[in-house]
């Protein structure tokens, strides 16, 4: 009588937590840290941002995957914070937040189809922006279907946007419609009007992306 063949042991897959790549685990740690920072009082957040952001900014795409609502939370935090006070009393923290904001914007283009379409259709545009009631100033550049930006102004640009600090923030967070704002002079735009209209379309798509809405 033949002996029955030994049943081959089927190895069960490891638990998802055991299989999680180190990069994903790192993104989850960044998510937790970011959520904690966004819930800090302004004064505490001002103190920690300059030392934290340099180590976080290169991991923003992974963080955005782990935390899809990050743009909305950034926009909400900006709308609730006294950015004019930040720019005046904590310029290093303001610059760090600006770096984070534009890193998220850069990564968000790849996540939001309408935003990506608007950026790709704008061509190449260099922009400086500056507040009239605080030291806040920065720049961004649209090129090759991508958008990058940061604190400080570029030497040569196509457009310069100036307005009150609050209005400049609302242009990002969606509190100010850029096209209506341009037509009603809520902000001043120096440069060719045709280029300004292209930029307004991008800004509208960016505001919608930060609010989690479709254009």
Mean pLDDT: 85
Form type: globular
What percentage of amino acids are in beta strands? 5-15%
CATH superfamily: SCP2 sterol-binding domain
The ordered H/E elements are HHHHHHHHEEEEHHEH
Task: Please give the structural blueprint.
Elements: H1 16-19, H2 22-38, H3 42-56, H4 60-66, H5 70-80, H6 83-89, H7 91-111, H8 113-121, E1 125-131, E2 137-143, E3 146-151, E4 159-163, H9 165-173, H10 178-183, E5 188-190, H11 193-211
Parallel strand pairs: 1-4
Antiparallel strand pairs: 1-2, 2-3, 4-5
Helix pairs in contact: 2-4, 3-7, 5-9, 6-7, 7-8, 8-11, 9-11
Describe the protein.
The chain has 215 residues and is an alpha+beta fold. The chain has a single domain, classed as 2-Layer Sandwich (Nonspecific Lipid-transfer Protein, Chain A). It is 58% helix and 13% strand. The protein has a five-stranded mixed beta sheet. A hairpin with a 5-residue loop joins strand 1 and strand 2.
Provide a compact summary of the structure.
This protein is an alpha+beta fold and 215 residues long. The protein is 58% helix and 13% strand. Helix 8 runs antiparallel to helix 11 and helix 9 packs across helix 11.
């Amino acid at each position: 009588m033949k002996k029955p063949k030994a049943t081959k042991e089927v190895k069960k897959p490891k638990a998802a937590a055991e299989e999680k790549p180190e990069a994903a685990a790192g993104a989850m740690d960044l998510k937790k840290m970011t959520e904690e920072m966004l819930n800090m009082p302004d004064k505490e957040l001002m103190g920690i941002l300059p030392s934290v952001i340099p180590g976080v900014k290169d991991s923003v795409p992974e963080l955005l995957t782990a935390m899809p609502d990050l743009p909305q939370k950034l926009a909400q935090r900006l709308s609730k914070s006294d950015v004019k006070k930040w720019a005046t009393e904590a310029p290093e923290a303001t610059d760090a937040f600006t770096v984070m904001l534009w890193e998220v914007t850069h990564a968000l283009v790849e996540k939001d189809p309408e935003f990506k379409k608007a950026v790709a259709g704008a061509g190449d545009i260099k922009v400086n922006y500056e507040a009239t009631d605080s030291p806040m100033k920065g720049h961004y550049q649209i090129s090759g279907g991508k958008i990058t930006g940061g604190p400080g102004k570029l030497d040569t640009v196509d457009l310069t946007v100036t307005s009150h600090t609050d209005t400049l923030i609302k242009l990002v967070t969606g509190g100010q419609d850029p096209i209506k704002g341009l037509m009603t002079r809520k902000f001043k735009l120096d440069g060719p009007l045709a280029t300004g209209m292209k930029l307004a379309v991008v800004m509208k798509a960016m505001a919608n992306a930060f609010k989690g809405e479709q254009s």
